[in-house]
Amino acid sequence: MRRISGLLLVALVWSTVGFSKEKDSVEPAPVFMDPDFHFSQVSTICLAPGLDLRADKTEQLFLSERGPGPGFEHSASADQYMAGVFGSMGYQTTECRPVTATLADLRAPSEEWLRSLDFGQSNWLFVLAVEDVRAKCGWIVGAGGMWGETCALVSGVLFEKRSDAVRMVWRDRVAGTPLILGGGLIGRKHVVEATEASMAVNDGVERLVEEFEVRSKKHPLWLFAVDEESFSANCDAVWTALNDAFGQDPKKYKVPFSDATDKMALYAFHHKTMMQSVDNENHVVLKARGSGCVMQITESFTINHHRETDDWSDLTNAMGASLPK
């Protein structure tokens, strides 16, 4: 097993949090990254308006216009929020025309669809999509009721335009949650739900963009740890073992999203201490390596639990016990 401590970038800084003095940072593992791609290659990024790709669009999303917020405030639109986070990271951006896409286009784009993309005057295009918003998903719940009960599944894809072709170079999915201070929101149910959904989407946008390489020294930092576990079995067998391990202890592992095609899952690992009860967010991706499989876990520390913990030993031990030796 290989463990690496690093820095995960987020836009909120809390005075009570101690930061690592390590200079070297480790990039979180996305679902897909072209082996020849490096963030240093990226120049101005054209940002397409966010896409609403939810199966159920009954509830309104605020992707291009301001959404409701706590009290008399308004939350920024997802498009505005995305541009702001890219800017704080040190990237130049410009606006692009809307993109027409399905989830299948973003997951495995065809050559014809890639040629239809409009990059404007840039060679880089970022497409944001909201795949799902779930109320009362029961995922990350911190002490004092600080975290809302809504989560948003948000995906982002970066495309590069070359002289001979267009290619997808980076893709990932994250789950965003609304950070609500003071014990929660008060108001009419539909307003509270819309506010939490808007905040959860923006949190997902932030988590996605901040997986990019930081270029600004002014951008705040947050701790994360990366674990890599190698298995001799193929990824189909490891994926089955992973889900079996999750199912053995649902109180310990909360899994709001799992995708067998990408072989990735978002889960929270429950910790109980003498002072509080917290859940750490974890992002799991399986990747084939030779005839075997590598599982990469990125653990983000919660706002109240900023010391490094081991969220994977029990999980990987349970998986190893069910796999052929």
Q: Could you explain the architecture of this structure?
A:
The protein is of the alpha+beta class and 325 residues long. The chain folds into two domains: 32-209, Rossmann fold; 222-322, Alpha-D-Glucose-1,6-Bisphosphate, Chain A, domain 4. It is built from six helices and 15 strands. The strands form three sheets. Strands 2, 3, 4, 7, 8, 9 and 10 form a seven-stranded mixed β-sheet that branches. A six-stranded antiparallel β-sheet has the order 1-11-15-14-13-12, with helices on one face. Strand 9 (151-161) and strand 10 form a beta hairpin.
Task: Give the name of the CATH architecture of the largest domain.
Answer: 3-Layer(aba) Sandwich
Could you tell me the mean pLDDT?
77
The CATH topology name of the largest domain reads: Rossmann fold
Uncertain parts: 1-26, 137-148, 274-278, 302-307
* Count of structural domains: 2
List the helices and strands and how they pair.
Elements: E1 2-8, E2 32-33, E3 45-47, E4 51-52, E5 67-68, E6 74-75, H1 78-89, E7 93-95, H2 103-107, H3 111-115, E8 124-134, E9 151-161, E10 166-176, H4 189-209, E11 222-231, H5 235-248, E12 253-259, E13 264-272, E14 277-289, E15 292-300, H6 313-322
Helix pairs in contact: 1-4, 5-6
Characteristic key phrases:
alpha+beta; Rossmann fold; 2 domains; seven-stranded mixed beta sheet; six-stranded antiparallel beta sheet; 6 helices
